[in-house]
Amino acid sequence: MENDAIETTRRQTVASGCFCCCHLREPFGEAEEEEEQQQLGIFCCEARIHADPLLEVDQFDRLPDSLVLVILNNVEDVRSLGRCSAVSKRFYGLVPLVHDVYVKIDRVVTVDGDAEDMLNLSAPKPRNILSHFLKMMLFTIIKPFHGMRGPNGAGRPLFPQLAQHSPAQVLHNFTHIRSLRIELPSGDVGTEDGVLLKWRAEYGSTLQNCVILGGTQVDRKPVGAEHELYSEDNGSMPESFYTNGGLKLRVVWTISSLIAASTRHYLLRSIIKDHPTLTSLVLTDADGQGTLSMGAEQLKEFRENQLSASACSNRTQVPACNMKLKYAPYLELPGGIALQGATLVAIKPSTSNGTHTSRKESDAFISGAFDGPFKFAVKALMKRRTYLLEMNGF
């Protein structure tokens, strides 16, 4: 009877979940005692698995703000950052503090376009993107922000400035930007199919350096094919270059690229003014045609000097320049690419305007202006004969 009472007590204790090692028990033998301890251990493990939900903690909240900012800086994309802002009050407060921001402009519409025009993807694109860039709406940037509200539930738009759809206002809420990259949907200079035109420019308050790489035809070189047309090329421009419009075409490339660069530079003035923390600014396009870059010293010089605007359009005045032109009728590039009518134009202002760059620095800028096979083309052209040209400001 005593044994039955003890066993009943043990079972009740186990069933009730009170796994105390001090409950009543009969002094079993070693085998029974070991079996009992194993059973109790199993129940204890099961009890630990089923934790109280009220005691669970969001481990993400344990991350310091500095680490979250590192993650957000790697996000970069302004639309993705906008979505992050809608996640929580914490993100809403941290997103404006990011240092690295990337703005991709997928489509532009004119200021006069209404809401229906903004949604009409088949609407024609303005022919002169060059002179209208600042007046264009950034619908694809703004779209992810529509409908987003602040986490306080007051119905206030997350970024109220976005209603104006201008690039400067898209970035207005970001107060600590150091590195900014903006990508336009296409290049500014129209070219025929197969024609190569790429440029890169450095600006302070005015043009400091510009390099242009062009070619009349880019195509694939057949495997094993040999090119004999220019086998006797001695590095000089052929006489036909002056008579068949070759030189005139290069002048058009140069002027068009400088206008594109000076227009982009002029249209960045409000962004530079609103973001004194900027130390790096790059404006490029999806076609990879042109790139304008400004470093910390150049941005500082831009802020300290008055911008010289052109009288005829919304762009920066192009100063009088000295140009070095190099030409090769044919170049074979890595990857089986052939470039005909290869031309390299290096441009610097005639006067230093308080800035001075050594020849070594200029050569480094030119050789590092482009990537891939075009980097090889630049290095090959730099070895060619140099032709000097001068151009008045415009």
UniProtKB/TrEMBL annotation:
It comes from the Eukaryota. InterPro entries: AUF1-like, F-box-like_dom_sf, F-box_dom. Residues 60-95 form the F-box domain. Signal peptide: none annotated. PANTHER family: OS05G0510400 PROTEIN-RELATED. This is F-box domain-containing protein. It comes from Oryza brachyantha (malo sina).
